Amino acid sequence: GDFFVESPIILLAAIIWYLKIYEDGKYCTFPHAIELLNKKYSDVFTILTSYPDLENYLSPFMDAWQGGAQDQLQGQIASAKIPLSRMISPQLYWVMTGDDFTLDINNPKEPKILCVGNNPDRQNIYSAALGLYNSRIVKLINKKGQLKSSVIIDELPTIYFRGLDNLIATARSNKVAVCLGFQDFSQLTRDYGDKESKVIQNTVGNIFSGQVVGETAKSLSERFGKVLQKRQSMTINRNDKSTSISTQLDSLIPASKISTLTQGMFVGSVSDNFDERIEQKIFHAEIVVDNEKVAAETKAYQQIPQILSFVNEQGEDRMKQEIEANYRQIKSDILHIVESEIERIKNDPDLQHLVQQG
User: Residue 358's pLDDT is what?
Assistant: First the structure.
């Protein structure tokens, strides 16, 4: 890959691996990794290279540092710092620290429903955090012996879901259903790239679509296939009248029809199983909504239980103060780690030379 793309990945990987090693992973969180990355690089490199497991990670950076290539080194480090600096916020740090629950949502011993949402005003910031969780969830749930589960994503292009194409292709055997919602195929191509977008489009088994236009309508029309239709033409002149009948392959659902669907009308196709055959796989129909049942269901909704409260015994909401305190604690943790590790290295005869390099 590109030098200034791979370098920050390697550096961040080394920092995360270090935090996993240090005190059995007590501080191994993404916010701690960001804070450590933003410390003086001479201290960071000194600490990381004191661990034999991490020496190879740091090799490209150490070569630049020891060789006096400061501009190259600053560029490598900045390539890691700049994108991650957008994620520095007390609120995000609060969410991404702690040990509230595990992400194996279909674990038979601890099943759970995980609901996360993006913020349109901070989409670029939160998309990175959501993408991190999503990619981890994909690996954890796509295993044998777990409960049936479903991954439901609305407005898919607003977040990057690494490994989604592979999840769709392989997770069915592990009882994982994937449901994706988005406005148009062009959105998917723009944000996921042409290759990955095509794989996602072609591997889904069931598709439901309302009104779409352009290339998306054409693509759906091609997906639904063609049907042999009879055509009758009549020719009339002064002397006689003639009729001819011919057959021609026409689109089952033309793109023009898909682009003019009214509200409530849908087209689509469904897949079946070996022992559950579906004769009519392609449909063009109106989805009838029973408003009375919807109203009854809505009325029966129960309040989501409050898991965490920031209100103290005096009735004061301490959310802002606790989030700020957590933010300061993370910074304090990293400061303590750096100071104690540098002191450890200085007092170790076998490692003292590393400090002298800084």
Answer: 43
SS (H, E, C) 285-300: EECCCCHHHHHHHHHC
What span, in angstroms and rounded, lies between the C-alpha atoms of 308 and 193? 40
- Please provide residue 288's backbone torsions phi and psi, each rounded to the nearest 5 degrees: -90, 120
Q: Would you say how long the chain is, in residues? A: 358
Number of helices and strands (H, E) in the chain?
A: 15, 7
Closest CA to 31 of 91, 101, 113: 91
pTM for the full model?
A: 0.79
For 75, 83, 201, 259, the CA distances from 217, given in Å and listed in that order, are 45, 37, 13, 6
Residue 135 neighbours by CB under 8 Å, 6+ apart:
161, 162, 163
Instruction: Report the distance separating Cα 182 and Cα 208, nearest Å.
Output: 11
Report the SS3 class of residue 94: helix
pLDDT tens readout for residues 318-352: 899 999 999 999 999 999 999 999 999 999 888 88
Q: List the one residue out of 102, 181, 101, 106 whose CA is nearest residue 142.
A: 106
Cα dihedral: 8, 11, 14, 20 (round 10):
-70
Give strand pairing partners of 181: 154
